[in-house]
Amino acid sequence: MRTSIATVCLSGTLEEKLQAAATAGFDGVEIFEQDLIVSPSSPEVIAGLAAGLGLSLDLYQPFRDFEGVEDELFAANLARAEAKFQLMKRLGMTTMLLCSNVATATVDDDQVVVDQLRRLGDLAERYGIDVAYEALAWGRFVSEYDRAWDLVKAADHPRIGTCLDSFHILSRDTDLSRIAEIPGEKIFFLQLADAPALSMDVLSWSRHHRVFPGEGSWDLTDFLARVAGTGYAGPVSLEVFNDSFRQADTQRTAVDGLRSLRWLEANVSAASGAKASAAGEAEAPGAGLESNRARLNLRPLPQVSEPRGIDYVELSTDDLGALTRQLHQLGFRFVGFHRTKPHVQLWRRGQARIVVTEPTSRHYESTAVTIDSTDPADEAAAVAADSPGSGTFLRGIGFAVDDADAAMERALLLSATEVPRDQAHDEEVLRGVFAPDGSEVFFGDGNGVDPQWTDEFGTVPDERQSAIDHINLAQPAHHYDEAVLFYTSLLALTALPSQDVPSPSGLVRSQVMSSADGAVRMPLNVSPDHSPNPLSRGTGSPAETYPEHVAIVCDDIFTAAMAAVARGLKFLAVPQNYYEDLAARFDLEPELLGRLREHNILYDRDDRGEFLHFYTSTIGSVFFEMVERRGDYQGYGAPNAPVRLAAQHRRNTES
Amino acid sequence: MRTSIATVCLSGTLEEKLQAAATAGFDGVEIFEQDLIVSPSSPEVIAGLAAGLGLSLDLYQPFRDFEGVEDELFAANLARAEAKFQLMKRLGMTTMLLCSNVATATVDDDQVVVDQLRRLGDLAERYGIDVAYEALAWGRFVSEYDRAWDLVKAADHPRIGTCLDSFHILSRDTDLSRIAEIPGEKIFFLQLADAPALSMDVLSWSRHHRVFPGEGSWDLTDFLARVAGTGYAGPVSLEVFNDSFRQADTQRTAVDGLRSLRWLEANVSAASGAKASAAGEAEAPGAGLESNRARLNLRPLPQVSEPRGIDYVELSTDDLGALTRQLHQLGFRFVGFHRTKPHVQLWRRGQARIVVTEPTSRHYESTAVTIDSTDPADEAAAVAADSPGSGTFLRGIGFAVDDADAAMERALLLSATEVPRDQAHDEEVLRGVFAPDGSEVFFGDGNGVDPQWTDEFGTVPDERQSAIDHINLAQPAHHYDEAVLFYTSLLALTALPSQDVPSPSGLVRSQVMSSADGAVRMPLNVSPDHSPNPLSRGTGSPAETYPEHVAIVCDDIFTAAMAAVARGLKFLAVPQNYYEDLAARFDLEPELLGRLREHNILYDRDDRGEFLHFYTSTIGSVFFEMVERRGDYQGYGAPNAPVRLAAQHRRNTES
């Protein structure tokens, strides 16, 4: 599948955008006219730059407000088109996007539009240019893809085809079945964008809130499969207008975009393979469709299932005493030091495992890695190695997966950057990659129960019913959509609907990434402030203001709380006002209410069950939560989150 | 008029919010329940704190999902209400907000609702509490204010009244005429919010985008006048959910809020006075209405008309040579040094005046001012005095107004902070205040033509047709709405619809504040990044990345450009691609196109006229624009702004 990206998706100058697209691995780009106009580079220089980078210039866009107009304006519009055709020749480009008329259309007459398209086609023929006509969702008269196709079909001109754009089609919720009517060779271009479910005017939605496939709420796999079914063989291109992407680092956005296309390609490939094998050898209906699909040359990825559990959470600390004391207070047992790395130790509570490392250790290892600075992946690794956060922070998460090698291979094919790591020859080889928030994601074989690598720390049996319930991560602003796609595409996690949680310093956007069985649950929180150093971990990271936490599930929260008290745990204090409100909201037994109050335990309830939990004080940018789930409660005590955020805010502003 | 503010409008803890509201000068607050629940202070402590600050606790809110339910749930809801009444007693509060049922209503029967309201009234009577019933715009069955009023009227209970909230009413575009039917004493509470015109679901609009009166698109003056006409005599309160306010400095937001109410109060007072005087002494219909209005005790402000012009722009510079060279190149003439302040000089081009100061000067003056740190106004001044920006930056603007004393008095009554300034005994007394972006706003009597204070610099006649056309200011994020209200309420400027301008590092939101005759035009630009030091001027301000500029209008831009070239001006370079696009867009004479290209002049045209303009290179965070307006063109060449932003971005990233 040939991949392409519109320059408007990326921040920076045109020259920077081309460089970023090429480095990420795109095959081509769409030139967004505005980017060229503001560039000091001539069209010839841009063409040369793209050629040198190995990028094809796939689409010149947008050409607007052309058709459905009176004769006089039409003549001016043709002249305008010719000027652009001349420009495209200088760029060596052969496909132009024509958007349905938004502003100047006055004639809603198919015959007039068809005639005007045909005359544009004649002109385009002289320049060897193809024109891809697209229905904008807010077009004056033409706003549906099938209407645009009907007009193109009627124009019946070899230089006039259609452009399908998932945003304009899916935002209007148009029936998709007529896509199958369009011969693939009459689809001159394909643009993809996803979008979150928002109820707002479609123009604002389009201009500010598009995201890459996999980051929104639409089924782009189905959409691409339908287009592939027509025999379309051209580039599959991203066209995303997004306020955050416009501000984010160009190179990261480009990598994020390519990941979305690789993921989508593999999804369609897998779905198509499944259909083909279901059809068997017989002459199934749709065999022609399969061969059509093959024209896009869809490449698969190693398939992964969602993780079966959390192997461990790794915390880095420069305050070993405080951290291990708190683990002990929470009922964790010290398993041992790593047999060859004395600065690494393992703690466990049932199946909840915390690896504690001292921060200098990885630093020493990493600087030994040879960095090839021309490879951006290595560069990212170098940056990570150069700035190992100080303080106490969440460094990484180990996921238990069916096939760690496949997961790692998939991650690398999805442009993730490998974590440089030294391994002794007789150790379990754990490999991993950096997540968008700078944390490390490691893949281990198994189901999360007593993974083999723990032998390297010694053996401490622990049959208690306890495990990691969820891990709450702080995400840097502007990299939130990237994070959703990262966990979706690498780990097959699912994004649950997002929530806004009020805190004293702003709303915290919270979205849970979860496996279907709940074995892996990770609320991602985006803090309202823009951290000065958003991609490092430790000091200066978003977690400084909105600390991250690891939640441990137990089977009796009161026992856990009492044991913790006996060991001197500092709980996050819960206001008395909270308990009074709790009494008003729920018809709780006074005895239960009293016990909750006594132990600083928070409470929530829904139709499915109950949730009891308490928080520890924060060490560095990490704290712990102990939870007990009763019945089939699936949430995270969201109504109680503001209590926690306010208490932590007081701690921040007081200190 | 008694002013109040809901604690949810402000960032911080409940204790911080109360402090900020009192310091700003509010008479009371609404306690937003969530703020109390997360507070470690008991209700008695909060009541004491408020009393000590001189704040009344006007409304406990919100109580939700009460009415229109089956009997069993109703009993639980009554118990829930009683718990809150008990809490309110401890707070010493007497009015509770009841929102129309959103989640649990199942019975859409007036008689049931009326009966349930009445029973709530009986319970409230026992605690001496009034319940204000409000229709939420997204209420399940009750979503219109007049329906809520009909139910309250039918309940006919002394403890049950209604609450009017401008957001819930104006967002639904409900006919306002029935407000006049409600007796003022049955309106138990009044909440005001403004909002920008957005086309989105009303719940998201309400939760994220409300603003203070004067910062949105609604006519709150008319709304408040209608409520005043009923004889309502209670607090006028702000209830604004806004993502930016939640992040902004608490004290500033509180001041901003109080300013909005003072401004609104004066508007209604003025409108009411105008009506009364129009009615004269006769027994005009609506005289009763006037006396009703008087019950709110609306205080006037000194009235101001919009400014008649710009007296001057003051630039501070530590690179005097570069700045004055550029002024000379642009055809400015040196008028002289200030007769007592040799570090201050005046330059003019026709009626365009630029005061140039060296940055240390004000600093020396200001530190001599005695700062009383218990007064927040003085504290702001102290901060401003302590951190005089370095570099070259726009320090202030002098506005020509009808009555400078009235303007200054109004500004101070609207909680603006006076700029500390020394004045010699025989000098023109210019007084001014700080704008939200840290720039200084000075008021001078006159019409902007040869103001008297210029005598202090000497006399250089200059009859050229030239003046300040517009001033483009960079606004710190999160203080944008505050800025709109500031210029609206202090200077009677009008906010034009906002636009988004793409730049290589994100969209720049741009909104023009203007006088009706165009004598004063100030585009306010909000940069996408959050500056680390957003409220200072000079180094570290938003203008660092998005420099500010002063545009000078002339009657022949080519002559101005040629003169500038002859004097060695460095123009902002315009890409050739721009001129090629211009040729495609407009049918320009080749000769004109050639001249534009030769002189780096940008061009725009609309139905009303033409706009020709060029930019200088940037010094510090300031550059200049020279413009020529042909015909009745009223814009600012917005289509060309991306060209400028891209060129400036290249300059930033290259340097």
Break the fold down into its secondary structure elements and pairings.
The structure is a homodimer of 655-residue chains.
Chain A: E1 3-6, H1 14-24, E2 28-32, H2 33-37, H3 43-53, E3 56-63, H4 71-91, E4 95-99, H5 110-127, E5 130-134, H6 145-155, E6 160-165, H7 166-170, E7 187-192, H8 202-208, H9 220-229, E8 236-238, H10 243-247, H11 250-279, H12 287-294, E9 309-316, H13 320-329, E10 333-337, E11 344-349, E12 352-357, H14 360-367, H15 376-386, E13 393-401, H16 404-413, E14 431-434, E15 440-445, E16 467-475, H17 480-491, E17 494-495, E18 499-503, E19 506-514, E20 521-526, E21 548-553, H18 557-566, H19 576-585, H20 590-598, E22 602-605, E23 609-615, E24 622-631, H21 641-654
Parallel strand pairs in A: 1-2, 1-8, 2-3, 3-4, 4-5, 5-6, 6-7, 7-8, 9-12, 13-15, 16-20, 21-24
Antiparallel strand pairs in A: 9-13, 10-11, 11-12, 14-15, 16-21, 17-19, 18-19, 19-20, 22-23, 23-24
